[in-house]
Amino acid sequence: MIVRERSSASIQRQLQLFFVGLLAFTVIVMGSAWFIYNQGLLKDEAERVLTAESDIIGSAVRPALMFNDKRLAAELLQSMKLDSDITMVKLFTIDGKVLGTYSLQGDATRQTEEIPFRKNSASEFSDGKLRLYRVVTQKQSPVGMVVVESGLVHLRSSLQSSVIAMLIAILACLFFGALIARRLQHKIVAPIASLASLMRRMGDRGDYSLRMESGESNSEMEELIVRFNQMAGQIQSNFDTIEMQQEDLRKREKRFRNIVEVAPLPVLITRQ
User: Half-sphere exposure of 250 toward its Cβ, with a 13 Å CA cutoff?
Assistant: First the structure.
């Protein structure tokens, strides 16, 4: 009699949780490393783009800085409205005085914000924004300072896209990991669970005629199934032999009893 049993849920769950958990941990670690590296690249790219824009702004406002012309500076700063990524521009003369200020959508708070004057070019990230200090020169002589601040709108959009892509990749890996774990469960766990269930049935019923079917599995499991079937066959053979011997003893006892009962003389049984 061949018995097929479904795999144990607990073994299957353990295998799936282990495999999927390990895969998820690996994907999250690699995804986080990629995200951090990609974020650094995007920040570097944003700084390069803003540096180029600040150089263009510096070239445009150079005459206003040279002649300390606030009206010309204000007219030039109004063109910043065309670039939604620029949140603030501040112009300083060479002596540190503010020549003009532009803020996105006329933010009065940003216009009155105290920004320290610097004599050297620099850059800084703060509150999710990038601020550049660029020295404006005329024939290699400094004539003023341009401070440009970017809201990094494109950077945040790129980061959001990166996060979404990473989440999709993680979900896809988890899905395929679950499929692989299910396949491994079918190849490895199912035969072991079936064998354990078959052994329980043998123990509960005392039926050693049950056999495990050799299916698609690894060589070690095949060997275990073959040895188990051989052991079960040997146990069944021993039980059959004992049963035959007991039946033979019952027949001999019956014949002896019949002889004693029909004998005309008393029968004395002694032990020597």
Answer: 6
